Amino acid sequence: MQKEEAHLDRVDDWTLQQLEHVTQHFEDNQKQAYLVGGSVRNMLLQLPVTDWDIVTDGDAHKLARRLAEKLGGHSAHLHDKASRVILKHESQEISFDISPMLDHALERDLRQRDFTINAIAVPLANLMQHLTGDAPLQLYDPLHGANDLSARCLKAIDDGIFQRDPLRLLRAMRFMLHYRLTLDSHTRGLIIRDAARLLQAASERIHEEVYALLAPMDAINPLRLLDDYGLLTTLIPEFIPARGMLQPGLHHWDVFDHSLETVATLEQLLTTLQRPPAEIRTSPLALGDQDDLVELQTLLLEAEAQGILQLSALLSPTMKLAALLHDIGKTVTYEAVEDGSIRFYGHPQAGVPLAQQILKRLNVSTQDRRLIQLVVAHHMRPGQLSQGPVSQRAIRRYFVELGPIGIHVALVSLADHLAMRGPQPLTSSWASHLATVRTLLNSYIRQRERIMPPRIVQAEELMHHFALQPGPLIGQLLDVISEGQAEGTVQSKTDAFWLVEEKLHVEHPMP
């Protein structure tokens, strides 16, 4: 058994007390208990540990239940006879995952794990001696994971780890990025060999790993890493034709790289909007009216104060996935015209069903799907509106269709514009686009009641008054009334009925 120093300065008094209780609990029940997996890995890296993984030769469910009762926490079954005990104290929370040792043999248990850095164990009693005294950690490390960890090397335990659990393909990517590890050459070959197996993993587990990869800043790095090992197009094969697919002259990147770069420019835009106004005014994005970006920051803060959105959610994995998929429709609408130009006619609408199947594959929630699909369907609109004066009618229609998600769509549209330019200098079209987004957000956040007044007539009243049947016509008439309210020509129910009567007369003139 190897001895190792790993001083845990980050273990607070309350956590230390709970660890003492846990250790005593196993001793009282005369059961072996070892700290294993990520807990040991993080200890050796001098990183915080909040989830403590324990294996035992006893009945894990029974031991966990009795432990929770003793410490005033609660226990929950996990899987394979394992249980989790959760303890809370004021703002703190720690958990103990207690699992049965495979075949009551520690080494056999460790050899069934994924990577050598996660196949290290420490006797629980020795852990307490280490934390409360000068005793070195006694590592049980049959696969030399501690050496690999020191060398920052990620190494598979055996050739079958990805076949036994394909989700480990994504975990390998996450470990490499989070812990700054390098794959050994043999493990690299195993990942490339088994990449096609990834979708055999449960979709909800894939979802968790994908979102964990996208959550930190610089999300383009995990996307590039996934692509390097063939995992990105395994998850999203719809991107396969995007690679090398040229775009019109204003675009710097092909469709594939543009999609990835839009994730990076979304982060760039939103981090710029978090800076002090003086820094925003001097940022590379502050072309033209330097106050447009500052005003955009103010509007987003007002929107959060109104409960319209959460600023923290603008850099969520959902938004990054929306940015990644915004142009997915281009893969099925590419057309090279005789004059040599390229076009993607109708690509936003064509992208919606593609996005739907991707999001279903990734087990994305209904709420997140709605946001992403609206971004895909409408990301071109703010840029198109910037081509000329923006009418109140156009603003109203935009937010009637999109509601508060229109803000998210507008932000992705700006990121799309930045990614289109790539390293090339921004032009006056960026200033126009930015000014249009400012106008859109100003209207919705500060003048919402004027551009979207409460309905003066309900659908039932309309059908009763004009003897109409339910159908699309009712929605169209209600929209006409709302536009009249926004323009000030409809101020009463009588005005609304006169407008509808006129509309019906035009649509269905008397013979």
Total beta-strand segments:
12
Rounded mean pLDDT is 91
Which bin fits the share of residues in helices?
40-55%
Major sheet attributes: 6 strands, mixed
Provide the β-strand percentage band: 5-15%
Report the radius of gyration as a whole number of Å. 29 Å
Helix-and-strand structural type: alpha+beta
Which terms summarize this structure?
single chain, 511 residues, alpha+beta, six-stranded mixed sheet, 12 strands, 54% helix, 9% strand
Give a nutshell description of this structure.
This protein has helices at about 15-30, 40-45, 60-70, 105-110, 125-130, 145-150, 160-165, 170-180, 185-195, 205-215, 220-230, 230-235, 255-270, 275-280, 290-305, 315-325, 345-360, 365-380, 380-385, 390-400, 405-420, 430-445, 450, 460-465, 470-485, 495-505, and strands spanning about 1-5, 35, 50-55, 75, 85-90, 90-100, 120-125, 135-140, 155, 180-185, 335, 340-345. The protein is of the alpha+beta class and about 500 residues long.
Reconstruct the topology from this structure.
Elements: E1 2-4, H1 13-28, E2 33-36, H2 38-44, E3 51-56, H3 60-71, E4 74-77, E5 83-89, E6 92-100, H4 106-110, E7 121-123, H5 124-132, E8 137-139, H6 145-150, E9 153-154, H7 161-164, H8 168-179, E10 182-183, H9 185-194, H10 203-214, H11 220-228, H12 232-235, H13 255-272, H14 277-281, H15 291-305, H16 317-325, E11 335-336, E12 342-343, H17 347-361, H18 366-378, H19 381-385, H20 392-402, H21 405-421, H22 428-446, H23 448-451, H24 459-466, H25 472-487, H26 493-507
Parallel strand pairs: 3-6, 9-10
Antiparallel strand pairs: 1-8, 2-3, 2-7, 4-5, 5-6, 11-12
